[in-house]
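Suppose a classmate hands you a notebook page containing two proteins, each written out with its sequence and a corresponding row of structure tokens. How would you begin to make sense of it? This section walks through that situation. The first entry is reproduced here exactly as it would appear on such a page.
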Amino acid sequence: MAQVPGTFLDGLGVRTWCGLALRALGRAREEIDAINVYPVADGDTGTNLYLTLESAATAVEAVFAGYETEPAEPSLQDAVRAMAHGALIGARGNSGTILAQLLRGMAQVLAGEGAEPRCDGPALRLALRRAADSARQAVAHPVEGTVLTVASAAADAAERADGDCGTVARAAYEGARTALAATPAQLSVLARAGVVDAGGSGLVAVLGALVEACTGEGPGEAVRETTAQAPRTLPDAAACAEAAEDGGPAFEVIYLLEADDAAVTRLRARLDSLGDSLVVVGGDGLWNVHVHVDDAGAAVEAGVEAGRPYRIRITHFGAGDVHTGGPRPPRERAQRAVVAVVPGQGLAGLYAEAGATTVLARPGEPPASGELLAAVRRAHAREVVLLPNDAELRDTAAAAAEQARTEGVRVALIPTRSAVQGIAALAVHEPGRRFDEDVVQMTSAAGATRYGEVVVAERQSWTTAGICQAGDVLGLIDGDVAVIGTDVTTTAETVLDRMLQAGGELVTLVVGDEAPETVAGRLETRVRESYLAVDTAVYRGGGQGALLLIGVE
């Protein structure tokens, strides 16, 4: 891993920091999950922090990938903006949302107007202070003894440090460690469980990685020392009951929101009246909203009134869990499950109805391996069939599968390249069959399904069908552009005709929100009138990116 001098932090240093922090959280994830008792003892803080940081690191890597053919490298401003944006859109859970705001606060200083191309000690001090203050402001009702306390202590210690980036980073790290050790004295639920704050422990790991990125020297056994009080299993029922305090809300609701500042101010007040653990982070028109409520629908409706919510995640804490004051009984593993990546809410519902655990992929923002691994864990099965439904996700899915295998889960990756191939595979899935036989049948069904899609070109480019202009309608067959047109329905008909030239028994149409309302009816009529003995199935895909997905089996 490349190192940067201790005197400054540049774009490469930010990349190094993200990689080191992701590695540190990966090592500490299980221990942090185990000490998670506040605000809800649901044992996922370490995982949520990891997934949030993974999204940040992926965004930074994407910026560097864009410079591969250039002699220059991304600037500090480019790197920290990407880091903050990636964390914002990928934030998971209460602690992950706060971590996203901490990174955003740092980016506001390091990428602000007039900022230097390299971050020195004084700039890092300012960035850490802005991070701590902005995170505290994002939480509706800050509580001491949490990650907020640890972040403030890190900023305080940094302000007392005099020196270069490495000196300031190490001071912040040591200040955070000291504050973390004191959290049980500030929050009774931590003292009763005999643990330090889980979110704060994750922040210490991230700051330890910052020290290493700035100096090239590791900070020592920070995470193991700070989690030394951690039990190897979740705390007892008494600690969980105190975490719930009079019985807490039943749902965690998280979504990204496009809205202006005034609308978000009103949204904060509305959500604060509905529940607790409210954290709203972001700015410049894009926000990440996190809240615990009893009425999940009302929380989403409040987002709709404020702007455009998407990537909506609703988690039910479950009957007999921490909110009822009793321990969560261990859930029996299922024998087999299917985990699938889907490009739209409509397909997510379709796959879920068929029994699959889904991972929603927003257009242009593919899920990372950690998110797929989390879905495999959520499926809670001894055997898992993984459907990436995108050729570019094959390596990501393979990494998630490999990690799941190390955890004792038998995983088969079927290299589906489109959601319509996943539908075909799911249609022949039989949990009662032997695992190998089921995988063979699903793989065969997916492989026998040709896939097409109709999209709108975003820019001028060369394609296998010629040069397209921005705004042209493109018809793709098996991943290659086969048709360039101007009308969605006409292009779709041409694509369908070409796909059916080789024969077929079933046409599957998945219609996106932005497709013309008449396109599905026109294609159904064409199949009925021109292709005897071919059936058609139509589904609504929602905001799936493509105007239309077509499958022919």
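The notebook's second entry, a different protein, reads as follows.
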Amino acid sequence: MGAVAVSGHVDHLTITQAVPQGPVQWPLCLGSVPALASAFQQRPEVRAAIDQAVTGHTAVVLTQVLSGGGGVGKTQLAAAYAHHALADSVDLVLWVDASETDQVIARYAIAAHMIDVPNALAGQTGEKDARAFLQWLATTKRSWIVILDDITDPDAMQPWWPPSSAWGCGRVVATTRRQDAVLSGGGRAVVDVDTYSAKEADTYLRARLKSARAEHLLDAQTDALAEALGYLPLALSHAAAYMINEDVPCADYLLRFNSSAARLDDLLPRHADTEGYGRHVAAALLLSLDVAQACEPVGLAIPALRLAAVLDPAGHPRDLWGGQAVTNYLTAHRAPMSSPDDADPVSPTQAKAALRLLHRYGLLTDDAQAGFRAVKLHALTARAAREHTPSGEQREIVRTAAEALTELWHMGLERAVLHTNVESLNDFAGDMLWEVEGHHLLRWVGRSLSVRGLATAAVPYWQRVSEASERLLGRTHRKTLLARRELAIAYLGASRSKDAFAVFQEDYAYDAEALADTALKTRQVAGSKHALHRSQNALGLFKLLEDTLEVRERLLGPTNPATLACRAKLSIAYWNAGQQSQAISMLKLVLKYQNQELGIHHSDSVATALRLDTLRREHKRRWWKPRQDPGQP
């Protein structure tokens, strides 16, 4: 068989050796079929879905399209079919790099000359020879399989799909990240390829480390590591190689991976690419992003992915993309283009079109059937997108996400979904969520936990929120005191009344101090440049609260929440001024109205009852004196 050299553009392909030297030796393998990865997983469930399409396709070409995101193992599955075909002595196995249509045409043209296809003569153009090869596939009685790996432009590929086989002896397996409807046309069967299952990931790690005589790196954190990597085959391959090279056990690697300072390019480096993928994992995950950025709606793919990347990878509602916060953000961050329409605000329709664009390019999944978790992206894709987001844009992304989730919250959407998205945003944003005034979301989530009776989760949650609020806003800040009040209620729900009483008792002095500060600022009394004495401060506070209470009772009524809040603050002021009896009487009135309006089991009523009980106990401790023994002088 003669060698074939190709030069020039595909439209003017030149075949240096046009005719094989002697008869074709069957079976024949053309193209570079990848070797199977170390510890390759057969993935029986995926293979079953692929093989299911075989039934009923005896008279036409069987075409299956393996579709999935970067790093899920599509190419390895296709390579397994090629190796099986070689083992079964299929006459022709053709592996084609389909990332560019020109390469597909060139490979077809070369194949035509290698197998001495009629009408494929020296000097003819690449396209004509390629068509001659496709015609040969349609009419030959020889068995064949064509693998089209990594189709990136389904529209351009339309004329170059192998045709139906007159004898039913051909098969096509294609891989792609794309999700376009055109891929399922022409009788092709699309098979979605996802990440490993938990069992497959565990099996892979154990087999891979065992093959390298590194079983000692396996430990109790092996399953947790696979989960942290999102069961992504490409990431597991790189991580295993890293651990083998550095002699790092799973637990230590997991600590490094979860570090906020660690980057994917360091944890999953190119030099750990033992399977020949040829690129960093982060680059592989975001491979098609630049192409998507240039597609309609132009300039929105990158900002849309960066926004989605700070939300829960397990899914968020599609409604988020029709809100004002998202459209404003996309308008401000749309890449500058030459179109005159660039000056127009991005509409909700365009925002959702950007979402569908990312879906078509395999960067995320937009599935309406998933309900409130319709929009998902792999955790590593999200992390790669965040790491490639300029630091100057992160604050605006956090603000936008917080405002968008606030919009959804007011719409009354599924609370559990909103909770996980708030938590994901907080994990990424940290203190930034407080800086953009988005921490109200944290309080909403905590209150929802308490209302649903999830005390086990509510207590540690409110502990974290209270500590963060005190650190960032100050111990006497109103929102810190509110957070600690919710912590006390959570303690009560967890049957930890002693801890609840301790929180309420500790915060009374801070409540009074905060109210006094407010009184001073509001009244702007003469001589405010100098510190007032405690007695003057108390008189000013009483006057402010009494005046406010009188107005609120007259205009809003005695049971209005604003009136009750003012009465409660006045009781605290009385207490700290030494007027304990008046404080208790005032708080008893608050509790009476709350019980009438809210019920005795409402969280506000419970909190007031706890305060009242604590005041009574403290008053009794101060004024009750034990009776002296008659025998004592």
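A careful reader of the second entry would note: The radius of gyration is 34 Å.
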